[in-house]
Amino acid sequence: MPSVQNEKVVYVQVENSAAAAGYIACNFFERPSEKLKLVGITGTNGKTTIATLLYKLFTRLGYTCGLISTVENIIGAEVIPATHTTPDAISLNVLLKLMVDKGCAYVFMETSSHAVHQHRIAGLQYAGGVFSNITHDHLDYHKTFDEYIRVKKAFFDGLPSSAFAICNADDKRGSVMLQNTLAKKYFYSLRTVADFKGKVLDNSLSGLVMTVNDVEVHFRLIGEFNAYNLLAVYGTAVCLGEEKQQVLTALSELSGAEGRFDYIVSANEKVIAIVDYAHTPDALLNVLATIKKLRRGFENVITVVGCGGDRDKTKRPVMATVACEHSDRVIFTSDNPRTEDPQQIIADMEEGLAAAYKRKYISIVDRKQAIKTAISLAGKEDIVLVAGKGHEKYQEINGVRNHFDDKEVVSELFEELEK
User: Fold this and answer.
1) Quick one: pLDDT at residue 12?
2) How many CA atoms does the CB half-sphere of 90 hold within 13 Å?
3) Which pLDDT score is estimated for 418?
4) Smallest Cα–Cα separation from 291: which of 278, 301, 283?
5) Fewer beta carbons below 10 Å: N end or C end of the chain?
């Protein structure tokens, strides 16, 4: 993209008005992304956890940092509510300028496929990019999986030679992501040779014990999917010049992002409830696979799950199948129906389910009632998974956001049981 710079005026040839907005915003704010180290995290699952852990890690290491994520935006210690995974170009540059003004040295930012496709990140200078994985999602927007992959890959294609790119080597499309990047390539893996190699030694409710490049560490996070997230964070920190042992020590003390495998244990009934943002088939499968590994063999798994309205309809029966295949009981319910009929969304989930699964599930449109029913069905030490909304504190019905917090509802229901 040719450009001629004269003092504060930059002339650029851009593809469309959205890209133009990004470049104009970058220059209006004197290119804030060049005054700090900006790291973008992209992929279907894991973006929020990786970005949040990086923010917490570098803050613990003594830096003033910024976070731009699905859950929240943070400038130093100031929390600003998030409205999108990645804000629009103008809002994004405003945030980055505020971060520069507050002395942030690093910013860790979730970079969604929508943001790449809509040029929200146009003109930004990245120090590095991280790829977690890519699975079935957002086909309501991208139409085909190949197009979804192409857009994700475009983020890495745009990284400069001064940047680094870190990729999950165990994702079968990982190497494709970095195929044409100018950035220096690094890989992390649990299953093959890589720059940042991990091996899980133990996985329980007390956390993960794993080796990272042959160093044994106990982490507070749970599950193999978090082992990948931790490797991505470790690799990023090393690429940013941090001392390896110091990074691992700090990482071992950190908790994950809100609404990601949050678990609560009832006092009397000893029921375990897990609240997780899993809203794609792959994310749901990862969470249920983790739960399976935590079971001692006799506990039942009861899953409460729905699908969002006005979003990719093709994943609805897939989500339902995953839930039924890996749970003992399932309750289909509302997620954020938005402008759709929640009963129709559930009907879409039920369509095509194998006959063997039809005895496993019931449908309850009201989400609170669905969670209450799941807890009432649970016996001692059974596990209730409430999936799909995680950190969200609302439920959107007919365009109106009503207060709804899965973790809050579970806690209230547990308190009722204990009276």
Assistant:
1) 41
2) 3
3) 75
4) 301
5) C
> Per-10-residue mean pLDDT for the chain, 419 residues long?
39 48 53 85 92 97 95 92 77 91 96 85 93 70 71 92 97 89 98 97 91 97 94 98 98 92 85 94 93 89 97 94 98 97 97 92 98 96 96 94 97 87
Tokens 């060049």 -> residue = 34
Q: What is the distance, to the nearest Å, from the Cα of residue 226 to the centroid of all Cα atoms in its chain?
A: 11
User: 209 by DSSP, 3-state: which?
Assistant: strand
Q: What is the pTM of this model?
A: 0.79
Contact 333, 370 (CB under 8 A): yes
CB atoms within 10 A of CB 412: 14
Q: Counting beta carbons within 10 angstroms of the beta carbon of residue 244, is it exposed (0 to 12), middle (13 to 18) or buried (19 or more)?
A: middle
* CA–CA separation, 31 and 312 (whole Å): 36
331: left (phi over 0), alpha (psi -120 to 50) or beta: beta
